[in-house]
């Protein structure tokens, strides 16, 4: 386990940098990606080598919904196994990265649109640790989670994310974790191991989402329900889509946009991920 003295070395030096940290939207997919050595997890490991080492990671996960906005504020967040029916090896994983109460307080202070509550009960859910353990396997970088207020819509989340720009300037990696296309009710369970299998509607709307992201049409992505029946099939409930808002809201005019892990699985899920900057 990382010591408190080690984690303090990261959080004591949150000064602004010349270079903005990239911002990520991670298609996290099945919890099994947390322990499997596959093309998705391999790219997560590769990505960590391509971007600057962050001073901390702030995750907005599809799996932490709350009334109001909360942020983890404990020294060591617990590993949450928020799933069922998977092999014991997945439940045995403990990702013992430190947290940062100091960064939690600073983040709360720069968000002015709402009161952010300090949370000491949550931890790192599978939208966070299944990805980050591949990126930073030594668990030596502070990781925090910011919850999603389920009473608010996409515009609210997009606007809130803009207030986090100061953290980008200070070397904090901000990561939204969800899936662009996420319809579990329509999954072809026999095709889950086929990373090329997507229903026509899923591929179509995934391409539409990518075009809109690439061309900066965030207004249309915020009002996704106007994109037609394919969008509503892709987003039957919005929790896996909302993290994208936290990524897009932090884009500047100078940022490049790139896609990775751009694959469909099980017909009605896409792993498509976005790097900004």
TrEMBL record:
Record keywords, A-Z:
Dioxygenase, Metal-binding, Oxidoreductase, Zinc
Single annotated GO MF: ferrous iron binding
Q: Name the top EC class.
A: oxidoreductase
All copies of domain Extradiol ring-cleavage dioxygenase class III enzyme subunit B, residue ranges: 36-252
Checking InterPro entries in the record gives:
Extradiol_dOase_DODA, Xdiol_dOase_suB
* E.C. number(s) listed in UniProt: 1.13.11.29
Under NCBIfam families, the record lists: PRK10628.1
Specify the protein name: 4,5-DOPA dioxygenase extradiol
Native source species: Pontibacter burrus
Q: Quick one: which gene encodes this?
A: ygiD
């Amino acid at each position: 386990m990382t010591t408190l003295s080690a984690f303090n070395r990261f959080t004591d030096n949150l000064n602004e940098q010349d270079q903005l940290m990239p911002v990520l939207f991670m298609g996290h997919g099945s919890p099994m990606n947390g322990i499997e050595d596959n093309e998705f997890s391999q790219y997560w490991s590769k990505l960590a080598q391509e971007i600057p080492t962050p001073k901390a990671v702030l995750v907005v996960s599809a799996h932490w919904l709350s009334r109001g906005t909360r942020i983890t504020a404990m020294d060591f967040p617990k590993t949450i196994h928020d799933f069922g029916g998977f092999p014991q090896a997945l439940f045995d994983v403990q990702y013992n990265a430190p947290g940062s109460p100091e960064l939690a307080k600073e983040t709360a202070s720069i968000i002015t649109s709402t009161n952010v509550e300090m949370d000491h009960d949550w931890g790192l859910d599978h939208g966070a640790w299944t990805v980050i353990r591949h990126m930073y396997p030594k668990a030596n970088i502070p990781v925090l989670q910011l919850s999603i207020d389920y009473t608010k819509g996409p515009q609210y989340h997009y606007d809130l994310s803009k207030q986090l720009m100061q953290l980008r300037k200070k070397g904090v990696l901000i990561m939204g974790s969800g899936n662009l296309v996420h319809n579990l009710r329509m999954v072809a369970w026999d095709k889950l191991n086929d990373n090329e299998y997507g229903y026509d509607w899923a591929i179509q709307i995934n391409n539409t989402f990518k075009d809109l992201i690439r061309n900066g049409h965030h207004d249309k992505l915020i009002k996704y329900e106007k994109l037609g029946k394919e969008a509503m099939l892709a987003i039957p409930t919005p929790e896996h889509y909302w993290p994208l808002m936290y990524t897009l809201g932090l884009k500047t005019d100078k940022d490049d946009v790139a896609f990775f892990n751009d694959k469909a699985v099980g017909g009605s899920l896409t792993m498509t991920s976005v790097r900004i900057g």
